[in-house]
Structures are given as C-alpha cells and as structure tokens.
Amino acid sequence: MVLLAAWSAQNPRLLLNSATDKHPKGLGNASGLVGHFMMSHHVASTWAMFDEDVQNHMGTIAVQYMSYERYPKKSHDGAFGSSFITAGFAVKTTDLANSRGDLYGPELADYMKRAARNLAGIKTFGEEQPNMENRVELAGEKDEFGMPLGRLIHSFDADAVALWNANFEEGLKVAKASGAKEAWSARGTMPTSHLLGGTIMGTSAANSVVDSYGQSHEIPNLWVAGPGIFPTEGASNPTFTIFALSQRGAERMASQWGTLTN
Fold it and tell me: Residues of the chain with pLDDT > 90: what percent?
C-alpha cells in the first residue's frame, strides 16, 4: 500500500516523477490530469484603527467573529463564488507591519506603535473556481536527490478578481459601522491562502485522478489524502473537510485491506 499525504503541490510532483513503462505520463495520470486544477483561496484584507485600546495582543488571530451571510455564490453583483468574513482584534506582529506596506523606517515604526494597541483586521476569504491551466508541472531544476522540482503555474481568473475587489467594499462598510477612526483596504497583489487540487477526485480516470475515497482509479494500492483531492474548494478553511475525507478514506481502506494487499 502506498498513501501520498504530502502537500498539495508535492503529491503531483511525486506522481509525475514516478513514470514507468506502464505509466509513461506518471502514476495515475493516464487522463493527463495529475497536477491540474490547482486552487487557492484569496484574501481581501481591510484594516481598522480605533481610538480605544482594543487589546489586540489577546485572543485568536482575527477570527473572533465570522459571517457567512455572503457565502452564496451570487452574493456580489458581477462576481461568482463563495466568500465569508472574519473579523477580530487580535493580530500578529507581522500583521502590524504588513497592514501598511507603503510605510518604511521611522514612519513604519511610529505607525506600529499605534497599531499595537488600536488595530483590528477584517478579512474575507474568497473561492477560486477550478481551472485546468492552473497546474503543477516538472521543472528543469532538481532537488538534492536528483529529482525534478515542481513548478506551480497559477493565476486568478476574472471571477476571482471581481470577488476579491467586491469584498474590500464589504470590509470598509463593516469597519465604518463599528466606529473605526480610520479604515483602509490592503490592495495590491492578490494574496493566497491554502492550496488545493492537483489530484482531484471524480467518477472515473477520464475526469479525475482518484475516487471519492482517495483511491487511484488506475492503481488500486495507491491512495492520496489531503486537500489535493478537492475538485472544488468553496471559501471556508479546508481543515475540517480534510479531516472528514481522511477518515472516510481510511475507513474504506481498512474495509478493503485484504483485497488491496493481496
């Protein structure tokens, strides 16, 4: 039995590097889909500065409050995809600096002194649709063991960009309604959070790499676990879904153990 449970980008890399005479395009890759449909969540960050000390050194980082009111796919005009808002006072030291990427030196130091007591974060995580061209492929460079590295090729489509921009407007509304003295959006390069896909699940080898349990369609004793088997992502943090799918796959594997190992 072989179970791949590495990072979403590493599992495709290992499969592509494991080509044989019987599997010339890599293990489990007769369909050519290994490494494809890589997805990431995008994050729209709004920052709010308050007059009072909000004790942002305490608590869970920026997620004391969560709203799924905008989770339906068509909640924003001109943008398709799920999103949800997290808001809270607790921030990391790195957040204090990154919240004002336009400041340097003494100006940044002065700002961080204020932000250390008065800053709160409002962040919206957004869904990206699965796109075939977003992929992991083998690179020319090799690691210390002589194995080709993986190259991640990814860009956000028009829906993702529109959803990202729409959620800045929501964040500013929340900040102003809460009585913030100042509020601003952290625009610029779209940040990514979480990486999913690359070994997606489906009904057959023609449209996917593994089945809904994580078992390879082509190689019965090869299984894959983790967010790489997600065919779509939604906007929520994937952790609990990863746990559920892993348990589901493990129970399936255990029930078939005698057949799989013979």
Answer: 74
Query: Which contiguous run of DSSP H or E holds residue 182?
Result: strand 182-185
Tell me if 248 sits within 8 A of 238, measured CB to CB: no
By the 8 A CB rule, do 121 and 87 touch?
Answer: yes
Q: How far is Cα 174 from Cα 5, in angstroms, rounded to an integer?
A: 39
The DSSP bridge pattern shows strands 2-4 and 182-185 to be unpaired
pTM of this prediction? Answer: 0.89
What φ, ψ does residue 145 adopt, rounded to 5°? -100, 5
Distance (Å, rounded) from C-alpha 258 to C-alpha 43? 45
State the DSSP code for 242. H
Report whether 15 contacts 30 (CB < 8 A).
no
Tens of pLDDT, residue by residue over 174-203, are 999 999 999 999 888 898 989 999 999 999
User: In terms of Cα–Cα distance, which of 47, 52, 176 is closest to 100?
Assistant: 47
| Cβ–Cβ under 8 Å, residues 164 and 185 | no
